[in-house]
Automatic annotation (TrEMBL):
<dbReference type="GO" id="GO:0005125">
    <property type="term" value="F:cytokine activity"/>
</dbReference>
<dbReference type="GO" id="GO:0050778">
    <property type="term" value="P:positive regulation of immune response"/>
</dbReference>
<dbReference type="GO" id="GO:0005615">
    <property type="term" value="C:extracellular space"/>
</dbReference>
<dbReference type="InterPro" id="IPR038326">
    <property type="entry name" value="IFN-lambda_sf"/>
</dbReference>
<keyword id="KW-0202">Cytokine</keyword>
<feature type="signal peptide">
    <location>
        <begin position="1"/>
        <end position="21"/>
    </location>
</feature>
<dbReference type="GO" id="GO:0051607">
    <property type="term" value="P:defense response to virus"/>
</dbReference>
<comment type="similarity">
    <text>Belongs to the lambda interferon family.</text>
</comment>
<dbReference type="GO" id="GO:0045087">
    <property type="term" value="P:innate immune response"/>
</dbReference>
<dbReference type="Pfam" id="PF15177">
    <property type="entry name" value="IL28A"/>
</dbReference>
<keyword id="KW-0051">Antiviral defense</keyword>
<dbReference type="GO" id="GO:0007259">
    <property type="term" value="P:cell surface receptor signaling pathway via JAK-STAT"/>
</dbReference>
<keyword id="KW-0732">Signal</keyword>
<protein>
    <submittedName>
        <fullName>IFNL3 protein</fullName>
    </submittedName>
</protein>
<dbReference type="InterPro" id="IPR029177">
    <property type="entry name" value="INF_lambda"/>
</dbReference>
<keyword id="KW-0964">Secreted</keyword>
Length: 186
């Protein structure tokens, strides 16, 4: 009986010392964009399936859009890493908002996995921005684009914003990979 109590006490002491050596909050709050440097093939297939399905729905519904939400006169490589993270967060916010608005029952199953993936990326990006650049102010170039995005979100029809967000989802993923690289991306 004494031996069993000693083993339990030893186990508790070891658990406490490991807990102190590796605080759980520090592990949870660290920047974890590394996993987005190389996206899993099954995630890419899910995105492609969603985009293809949405494309066929668009053809049937005859949505005619002239939106340019994701077009810029400059390249992502021209931005600092904190600016890249801000840009990708804004793009992810838009895509996730638009996926959340879709109400076509045939689309529900197709966009569940991409929505979960993008939401996780959004959360990871938010944590990185809070830990690495909490008071970063966007450059003039990025600030101008963010203002144009806000205006477009208010003036574009929901259908056109949905179409633009889904059709540009691979651009958003490329930008996420670039932000995860933390160096010049090509």
């Amino acid at each position: 009986m004494l031996r069993l109590s000693f083993i339990r006490l030893l186990a508790l002491l070891l658990a406490a010392s490991f807990g102190a050596a590796f605080p759980q909050d520090a592990l949870k709050k660290g920047c974890s964009l590394f996993k987005y440097r190389f996206l899993e093939p099954h995630e890419m297939k899910a995105m492609q399936k969603m985009r293809d399905h949405f494309g066929s729905i668009m053809l049937q519904s005859d949505r005619r859009c002239n939106t340019r939400l994701f077009h810029r006169k400059w390249n992502l490589e021209e931005l600092s890493v904190p600016d890249r993270m801000m840009l990708v967060k804004a793009e992810l916010d838009l895509v996730i908002d638009m996926l959340g608005l879709l109400n076509d029952p045939s689309f529900t199953e197709t966009h569940q996995r991409p929505l979960a993936f993008l939401t996780q990326a959004q959360e990871d990006l938010r944590v990185c921005m809070a830990t690495e650049a909490p008071s970063h102010q966007p450059s003039k170039k990025l600030r101008h684009w963010l203002q144009k995005l806000q205006i477009a979100k208010k003036t574009e029809t929901t259908g056109c914003a949905e179409a633009s967000a889904i059709l540009h989802v691979f651009q958003v993923l490329d930008n996420l990979q670039c932000a995860a690289l933390r160096e010049q991306c090509t």
